[in-house]
Amino acid sequence: MLAELNWQSLAERRRLARLTMFYKIHYHLVAVDMPLTMKMHFCPTRTENTTAYNIPSSRCDYHRFSFFSKTVREWNTLPEHIVSLTTIEAFKNAIIAA
After folding, report:
1. Which end of the chain is more exposed for a tag (fewer CB within 10 A), N or C?
2. Which residues of the chain fall short of a pLDDT of 50?
3. Exposure on the CB side of residue 40, measured as CA atoms within 13 A
4. What pLDDT was estimated at residue 20?
C-alpha cells in the first residue's frame, strides 16, 4: 500500500524529522542549546563531514538511542553538500533524494 500511494515508511519519516530538527538546532534556527561539542579536525575522516559532532559514550540503551545520540550518528555520515545547504526545504529535499 505504501508503494502504491508513493508514501515513505514511518521509520523514514521519523529519520527525516530528527535530521531536520538537528539541522535547525545546528544552525540556531530554534531556541534549543546544543549539548554536544563539534569535532575539531582539520581533515574529516572518509565517513564524516566537516560539521561532525562527538558522540557521547553510553552504557545504557535509553541514552544510546536518545534523540541526540541517535541523530548525531546519522548527521555525521551525511555528505558535505547536504549539511551545508542554506535552507530547510533544500535540506529536506536532499535527504529524501539520498
Report:
1. N
2. none
3. 1
4. 97
- Amino acid residing at 80: E
Q: Where does residue 6 rank: exposed (0-12), middle (13-18), buried (19+ CB within 10 A)?
A: exposed
pLDDT digits (tens, 9 = 90+) for 11-23: 999 999 999 999 9
Helices (H), the chain: 2-5, 10-26, 61-64, 67-76, 80-83, 88-97
Cell of 38: 563539534
C-alpha cell at 31: 531556541
Coil, helix or strand for 38? strand
Tracing cell 530547510 back to the chain, one arrives at 88
Contacts of 64 (CB under 8 A, 6+ apart): 58, 70
Burial class (CB in 10 A: 0-12, 13-18, 19+), 31: exposed
